[in-house]
Amino acid sequence: MDRSKQEKTALGYSDEPSDPTTEQGAASSLRARKLLSESQEQEVKELRSNSFQTRRTTVADLEEVLFEPIPVLDHGFVRVIDYMGDDAAITQAARVSYGRGTKKLREDSGLIRYLLRHRHTTPFEMCEIKFHVKLPLFVARQWIRHRTANVNEYSARYSVLDREFYIPAPEHLAAQSASNRQGRGEVLEGEEAAEVLELLKRGAARAYGEYEQMLNQDEEGNPRDAERQGLARELARISLPVNIYTQWYWKVDLHNLMHFLSLRADPHAQYEIRAYADVMLDVLKRWVPITYQAFEDYIAGATNLSAPALAVVKRMLAGEEVTQENSNLSAREWRELLEQLGRS
Amino acid sequence: MDRSKQEKTALGYSDEPSDPTTEQGAASSLRARKLLSESQEQEVKELRSNSFQTRRTTVADLEEVLFEPIPVLDHGFVRVIDYMGDDAAITQAARVSYGRGTKKLREDSGLIRYLLRHRHTTPFEMCEIKFHVKLPLFVARQWIRHRTANVNEYSARYSVLDREFYIPAPEHLAAQSASNRQGRGEVLEGEEAAEVLELLKRGAARAYGEYEQMLNQDEEGNPRDAERQGLARELARISLPVNIYTQWYWKVDLHNLMHFLSLRADPHAQYEIRAYADVMLDVLKRWVPITYQAFEDYIAGATNLSAPALAVVKRMLAGEEVTQENSNLSAREWRELLEQLGRS
Amino acid sequence: MDRSKQEKTALGYSDEPSDPTTEQGAASSLRARKLLSESQEQEVKELRSNSFQTRRTTVADLEEVLFEPIPVLDHGFVRVIDYMGDDAAITQAARVSYGRGTKKLREDSGLIRYLLRHRHTTPFEMCEIKFHVKLPLFVARQWIRHRTANVNEYSARYSVLDREFYIPAPEHLAAQSASNRQGRGEVLEGEEAAEVLELLKRGAARAYGEYEQMLNQDEEGNPRDAERQGLARELARISLPVNIYTQWYWKVDLHNLMHFLSLRADPHAQYEIRAYADVMLDVLKRWVPITYQAFEDYIAGATNLSAPALAVVKRMLAGEEVTQENSNLSAREWRELLEQLGRS
Amino acid sequence: MDRSKQEKTALGYSDEPSDPTTEQGAASSLRARKLLSESQEQEVKELRSNSFQTRRTTVADLEEVLFEPIPVLDHGFVRVIDYMGDDAAITQAARVSYGRGTKKLREDSGLIRYLLRHRHTTPFEMCEIKFHVKLPLFVARQWIRHRTANVNEYSARYSVLDREFYIPAPEHLAAQSASNRQGRGEVLEGEEAAEVLELLKRGAARAYGEYEQMLNQDEEGNPRDAERQGLARELARISLPVNIYTQWYWKVDLHNLMHFLSLRADPHAQYEIRAYADVMLDVLKRWVPITYQAFEDYIAGATNLSAPALAVVKRMLAGEEVTQENSNLSAREWRELLEQLGRS
C-alpha cells in the first residue's frame, strides 16, 4: 500500500516523513521550515482562495490568517479554521437585542470592559472559534484537561502516526528548578546538554523505527515482510514516546478560550503549552481587539489580593510600617504579596 | 421616561404593548401577526441587507432565513443569528484534514451516516448555531435543563418585561390525561373551555396591571404617582405568571442540538416546547441536510429494543408464537414492544 | 382522590396547604413555623435515627444536621441529604495517595490554602454534597444558571403544586435603586408598602384559587364538578406566579459549590437567593472547615486588582499622590478602586 | 535523596521499582502479583480497618471492597475510594421525597427500570462514586475524553514516574484487522510475536533507563553525577512511551459512569480500556444491583433499530421475504441488521 492510497482511506492523513535526528530541523528558522506537505499546501491554498457572500458578522483581520498554519515549536502549528461572532456580538447578546444596535463603538467597549471586570461571563460564550492544532502528545495531555471545549483528535488506532517528534531547542533544555518542584531552573550546558539532546533524538528515531518494525511496514507504508501480519496499529503505538506529534480540531467559546489562555499563557505553565497559548493570544487580538485589551487589563495583568493581603495593603497605604511578623500572613504569602506589589 | 429613552439605556429592549385579552391576537394567522415593533423590524432589515466577503464555510439555504423571526405559538419566535460549519465540516473534523478534501459528496454522506449510526458524536460538536428565541417562562424552564449550551436571557431585574402572555389556542386546551400522569387528554369543550380561556386571559391582564402598579409605572413607562418610589423591578416581577414571555440568545453545537431535538420534538414533550423544536427541525434541514436525514433515520425515527425485547423479536422471526405470558416481559414492556412494532 | 392516595402515586409529594395571606405566617419566628407536614416530619425523624457502619470518610459536624430542614425565607428550606469527602479528601486527591497519609493537620491545611490561592481547583471537585431545597420559582431560575451541577425538580406536569408563595417580609420590600439598574434602594414605607404587600398576597391567593378551579379540583384534591374534566396539570400551572415554591434535589462538587457561593452570597446577588447561599455557607463551615476558611480569605474576602489599578496602588505605595485624572482609570473604575481600598 | 524522603515531599507517591522485562511478571497470576508497596499496603489496611457511624445511605456489598486494589492488566488496578447513594437514592430523587419512602422494593425497581428505559437520566446523576485507578497513558488518553467527570492525575512535572510499563500478555498481541481499520485481527504467533514482545520490553527498559539518565538520578532517586544538574522532570518525561503507567483519582456520577461503561465495556473499545470497564461493571453490580440489571437489559444488551431497519423488521414479521435489494438499506446497514437479529 502506498501513501496516496492510504490518504484516500484514512480517517486522518499522511504527511511526508521528516527527520527529527538531524541538526538541520532545529537550526532552520521557524518560518522557513516545511510545515505542510505539497498536497496539504495545495488544500490550504484552495481554501484561502475561496470567497463567499454572507450576512454573518465577519472580521477582516481574522479572515486574513484563516486556514494558514502558524508555526509553534519545531513541527507544530495552530490554524484558525472557523469563527463565529466578534466584539459586537458580545454586547448584542448581553442586551438580547434584535440588531447590531445604534450604540457607538465607545459604548460597546465600555460594556465589554464592564462585563469582563465584573465576571459577567455568559455574553463571552456567544462567540466561538475552531482551531486545527498540531502538538506533542504531552502538551495534548495538559490541554485536554480543559473540558469545556470540543475536540476531534487524529486516531492512532485508525491511522499510522507521522515521524515527527518534539526536540527542545537548546535554549529550552532546562535543569530541574531547585525552588519550584514543578518548574525549570537554569539552561543545561556543555556535555550534559549535548548528551540529553542526543538521547532525545536517538530515542525518538529508534522508537519510530521499532514502531514501523512492529507494524511490519516500511517508510512508504508497504509491508516489510510478506510472511508477517504486522501488529495492530492500536498496539504498535504504545511504544511511542509522548513527544511524538498528534493533531486535533479544537473548538471553544470565547469565555473558555480566555480561561485557557489565563492559565496556559502564564509563567507557571510548562513552556511548551505556553508557546501555543502565546500564538493564540495573537489570534485573540485579531478576532476581538476590545475584548483582548480587557483581557489584558482585567485578567492576564490583574492580581488577586486575599482578604489578609488586602488588609496589609490598606495598612501600608495608611502609612503604617508592615512586616511579615505583624502582617498576619505566612512567610510564603508575604513573599507572594511583595511579588504582587513589585517589591521583591 | 418614555419608551425610546428606555430602549437606549436598557440591557434588553422594549416592545410595543400588545393585548393578550382580545380574541383577535389568537385568531389572526401566525404570519400576519405583528412579531416585532417598527424599530425592531428596521434593525432586522438592516442586518439582512448586509453582505460580507468571507473565506468561511457558508450555507446559502440557511443564509436565506438569517435574522428573520420564525413565528412560534402566539407571540414567540425563533431567529437564527449566526452559525459555524456545514455537513462537510463534520467529515473534515472526523478526518482531521487540512482542507475540504477531494472526497465526493457521496463519501461524505456515507461517513456522516456512519458516524451518527455508531454514536461517534464528537465530529458533530464541530458545528455551532446561535438562536434568538422568544418563549414563555414555563417553556424556558424546561429548555434550560439542557446544560450543554450557552445562554443570555433578558433580565427582569434590569428591565421591565413586556405585556405578552402565552394563551393556548382553543385546540390546545386539553384535559388531564387519565392514563398518562404527565400528559394531555381530550380537548376541553363548551363552557369549561370558555371559562379556562377567560381565567387565563383575565389572570394575565390583571397580573400585568398589578406589576405596573407595584412598579408605579404607567403604560408609557412613566411614573404613575410622583409621591411613590415604585417597587424594585426584581421584586415586582415575582407576581407575574409563568406564561409571560421572556427571550434569550441560545447557542449550541450540532450534537447537543440534535439531542435537544430528539427529546423535545418528541410526542412525550409538552406541546408548547415541541412547537419550538419543530421549527428548529426545519432550520436543521436547511443548515445540514445530510445530517438532518441521518437524524431522521437513526435517531428520531429509530427505536431501541431492550435485551429481552430483542429476544422476543428473534423468536417471532423464527416463527414462534410469542405471548406476553411467555415473553419474559412485564405487561407494560410488552405493550411498549407491540407499539414499537406497530402491532398495538 | 384524597391527599394520602395522591402521595402514594405521585412523582413528588403533597404538603398540607398553608395560607400565605395571613399575617401570622410572616410574623412567626422562622424556627417556630411549620416547614414540614406531620408525615414528612416522621420521615425525617426516621432518617435521622439511622446509624450505619461505614469505612468512608465521615464528618461528625455535618452528620449533626443531616436531613434536617434549615429554614430560608418564609416557606423555604435547605436540607443536606448526603455528602462525600472532607478536607482530607482534597489533599488525598491532590497527592493521588493510597491512604489518608501521615501528614499532620497543619500540612494538610497549608496545602489546601495553597491549592485554593493558586486556583488549583480540581482537588476540590473530589468532594460532593447533595441538598434538598425548597425555593421560589424566580430563585430557582437564577440558581439553575449554574450548569455544573445535578438537579431533579418536582414536576408540575406530574403533580399539583402546593399553595405556598414567597411574600417578602416588610423589611425586604425595597424600592428600585436609582443608581443601580439591577438593585434595590430604600425600604418602602407607609401606604405604598401596605398596598404592595396586599397586592402580592391577594395575587397569590387568587392565582392559586384559579389554578384549582382550572384543575377542577378542591382543597382536598377531589373533583369540584363531576361534569368537568379539569385542565391538564401542565397547562393549569402556566397561570401561577414565579413566587410560588418549587423544590429540588441539587448535587454539586465542592469547587462548583464555592463558585456558586462566591456569586450568590455576594451583595450583588438578589437578596432572596443570597438567603439560601448564606445558609449554605454555614453548611460549608461544618463540612470542610479548613476549606471554608481558605474560601473566606482567598475568594469571598479577596479582591481583584486590574492591571491599571495595580499600577495605581504601586504608585500610591511609593508615596505618589494619585488622582483619577492622572490614574489612567475611568471615573467608574476609579470609584471601584477606592471602594476596594476602603477609601470611598 | 532516598525514596522515603521523596514520599514525604511529593505530590504523588513513589512505588518500589518492578521489572517489566522479566517473564515472571506476566506469568504470575494476577492475584498473586505485587500491586502495592509495603507502605501502601499498610495504608490500605488502615483505611479498611476504620469503622465510622453515619446516618448516610450505606451499601454493605460495596463497603466490602472499599479501598482494595482490584487488579487490571499487568500492573494496573481500580480502587473504590468513596461513594454516595444507592438504588433507593435514585427513586428518592425522582420523587423529590423527604425520606426513603414507604415504597416497596418492587416499586422502586419498577421505577428505576422505567426511568432508564425512557432515558430519564437525571435521577441517576444523584449517585456518585470515586475511584483510584492505575492505568497506562494510552488508556488514560482514551478515558479522559469522557468530560463529565472529575479527575486528579499524578503529575510527572512534580514527581518521578514509576518504572512500570504495560506489556500485553501473549494472547493479546493481535495483528491488525484486515476488515476493521480500527480493530485487531488474529493473535500473532511464533517469531513475529516473540520479536514484538522483545521490542516492547526492551523499549520500555531502555526508555526508563534514559529517563533516569536525563534526570541524573539512580534507582534510589539519588543523583548519579554530582557535577550535573539533571534535566527538569517536565522535560525528561517527554521521552517515555505511552505504555508507562500513570494513576489518577476519577469521580463520576452514576449516569455518566453508565455512559462510560456502555462505550468502553463494548467490543468496539480497545481491549485494554475494556479490561478496566469490565472490572467497573462488577463494582456497579455491588453498588446498585437493580440499576445494574436495568443497565444490562436496556443499554448494554439493547440494540437500536434505525427507521429503515425497523421498517424491514415489520415487513419480516408480516411474513414478507426481505432481501438487501428490496430492503432500502445499504449493503453495510443490511449486514449490521442481520447481526443485530443474530442472523449473520
Tell me what the structure shows.
Chain A contains 14 helices and nine strands. Chain A is an alpha+beta fold and 344 residues long. A five-stranded antiparallel sheet of chain A has the order 2-3-4-8-5. Chain A has a two-stranded antiparallel ribbon with strand order 6-7. Chains in contact: A-B, A-C, A-D, B-C, B-D, C-D. β1 of chain C pairs antiparallel with β1 (52-54) of chain D, so a sheet runs across the interface.
| Main beta sheet strand tally, sense and closure of chain A | 5 strands, antiparallel
Low-confidence region ranges of chain A: 1-32
Q: Name the shape of chain A in a single word.
A: flat
Helix content of chain A: 40-55%
Reading the helices and strands of chain A in chain order gives HHHEHEEHHEHEEEHHEHHHEHH
- Going across the biggest sheet of chain A, name each strand in turn: 2-3-4-8-5
**Rg of chain A computed from alpha carbons, rounded to a whole number of angstroms:** 24 Å
Give the strand content of chain A.
Answer: 5-15%
Task: Give the terminus-to-terminus CA distance of chain A.
Answer: 63 Å
| SS class of chain A | alpha+beta
Mean pLDDT figure of chain A: 89
Largest interface: A-D, 61 and 61 residues
- Please report the number of helical segments of chain A: 14
This entry's quaternary arrangement is homotetramer
Count of extended strands of chain A? 9
